[in-house]
User: What shape does this take?
Amino acid sequence: MALVESNPIFQIKGRVGRYVIKKFNGKRVISLRPVHYKKTKSRVALKLQSNFVAVICFAKHINSIQNLVSIWNTSSIKGFSAYHKIIKSNLKITKFGELTAQNIIVPDSIPSLITDIQLNKNELMVSINNLTTLKSIVGNHAATLVTVFVYSSSKRKTKSSLHISSMLHHLKIEDCPGDFQKCFFISNEQPKMGNRIRHLILFSTLIWKSSASNKYEWCSTYSKIIK
Assistant: This one.
């Protein structure tokens, strides 16, 4: 792998014949693509490939939510970027090409303050407990409830695909009781898949900024298999 020197006039990227020029770890590099790719028939390799496809789809969506990106960037997990940290943390807990309730949208932190989530048509009922201690930390800041919907749809028995969406809701912690339930309206986008939904997992977390440090803090991922 060779390095490409920076040019003040223009920068090269992409494919040039069998050569690929891309940015890696902050540096622009050039590599040679093989003439032929041999498709593997190994069951282990195929499982790893399917796991990687699912995690990439999951990581791309999480990486599109700025609040979550900020958290992954500040975490102690080793990685080139938030995106790579998300992939690294989720790949080892993905099985058989499917995301599970063990996958995470934020790095592990304090136990989740979210104790239950119920989905009823266009309503999301969330139960949150133990906010008393959080009130003194958050102060006048609002907390953000992030919920990620992961639908696994199947058009054929042998082929599945993921549909991922998310919702963010702001909560004024000082106005909330220590333990409470809150109902949120969700868009019609979620139920549109109808009977094509084979599997649905909800991932949720609560994010806030400390009034003392003004830095993001969060609780661990709460997940629930709905279907």
Remarks:
- The longest strand covers residues 143-156.
- The chain is about 20% helix and 35% strand.
- Residues 43-62 form the longest helix (20 residues).
